[in-house]
Amino acid sequence: MSYFVSDVKKIYKNRLVQITLLLFIIVAVSDPLFVRFVYGGQPGFSEQVGANPFQFWLLMNSSGWGHTVYRTLLFVFPVLSTGLIFFNERKTSIYELLIVRKSRTQYLISKIGSVFIVTLFNFLLIFIVNLIVTHLCFSADAPLTEQYNFLIPKEETFARNLYQISPIMMELAYSFLNALAIALMSVLVLGIHMIFRFQNRLIAFLAPFLILYAVNYAEGLLLANYMQYNLSIIIQPRAASALSTCITMADVVLVFISLFAVDVIVAFIGCRRNRDAL
Predict the structure, then answer these.
(1) Alpha carbons 220 and 223: distance in angstroms, whole number
(2) How far is 67 from 237, CA to CA, in rounded Å?
(3) Nearest to 175 by CA among 28, 38, 64
(4) Computed over its alpha carbons, how large is the radius of gyration of the chain?
(5) pLDDT digits (tens, 9 = 90+) for 220-229
(6) Contact 176, 82 (CB under 8 A)
(7) Structure confidence by residue, pLDDT tens digits, 227-258
(8) How many other β-carbons are positioned within 10 Å of the β-carbon of residue 74?
(9) What pLDDT, on the 0 to 100 scale, is given for residue 278?
(10) How far apart are CA 278 and CA 37, in angstroms?
(11) What CA–CA distances, in Å, run from 88 to 107, 166, 188, 198?
(12) Model confidence over 166-184: pLDDT tens digits?
């Protein structure tokens, strides 16, 4: 537990992590404010486009600049969320000093657990803050427009069941899925840092990002006819209404279990690679 507490503190004290969280929370807060007071001030906007919060939360508002920033940085966030802390410790004698205190296994497991939990918590919290600000800016009682109807999930999608319970339930579910995806990818990045000995910080940053981006690009090509198995598609709420393919709960579970399995394999290889540190 001492390793875990120490690692959590290191993550939050890391300047890279601090800047990332600060910038993203600014995006999450300012995006709905921008829509409300810039676009919303235009004549006929509420009547033609709508003024319901379900239309303008960060993950749904695909035409908003905040959504564009988020999607652009989707595969950068997992790298930034690690703070490159393990890379920095492995490059110095700190690694050896820390594992002497208890054990290498506890040290590495703590690194994995802290990165996953802190990243999941951070991004879920920011997404929830975005939902709160969006619901304060817009009214759930606003008349539903034709534009709103385009956003309603199709029948048989897992999102439709959530939407029928409550639009807020769907918003929270997608917020959790996006935060979970980033957290799992952060563990994958950490595993890559464990396996490979990068020479400098720039390469340690770029290599995992390029791997994540390349895998996503390959998925887009290989799964062109099976988009329900593409992670970056699944976590987009617009996909539930825009795609002809229905994304079911079974599809979501399968994709996330697969990503979790990849994390386990990569982390295991990374731990094996670091077994001879002493």
Answers:
(1) 5
(2) 12
(3) 28
(4) 20
(5) 888 777 788 8
(6) no
(7) 888 999 999 999 999 988 899 999 999 999 99
(8) 19
(9) 42
(10) 59
(11) 15, 45, 17, 10
(12) 999 999 999 999 999 999 9
Q: Confidence band (pLDDT; 50, 70, 90) for 259? A: very high
pTM for the model: 0.94
Integer CA distances (angstroms), 265 to 116, 205, 207, in order: 15, 21, 18
Which two three-digit tokens encode residue 27?
A: 């995006």
What tokens were used for 261?
A: 């399995």
What is the separation, in whole angstroms, between the first and last Cα of the chain? Answer: 22
Crossing angle of helices 158-165/249-273, nearest 10°? Answer: 110
Residue type, 254: L
Average pLDDT over residues 101-125: 92
**Phi, psi (rounded to 5 degrees) for 225:** -100, 0
Which residues 6+ apart lie within 8 Å of 241 measured at CB? 150, 151, 152, 153, 154
Question: How many angstroms separate the CA atoms of 227 and 223, rounded?
Answer: 6
Question: What does 162-218 look like in DSSP terms, one character per residue?
Answer: HHHH-HHHHHHHHHHHHHHHHHHHHHHHHHHHHHS--SSHHHHHHHHHHHHHHHHHH
Separation CA 275–CA 278 (nearest Å): 8
Residue owning tokens 């006929």: 44
State how far the alpha carbon of 141 is from the alpha carbons of 47, 53, 238, in Å: 13, 9, 21
Supply 34's token pair: 């921008």
Find out whether 81 and 17 touch, Cβ atoms under 8 Å: yes
Tokens of 12: 């939050």
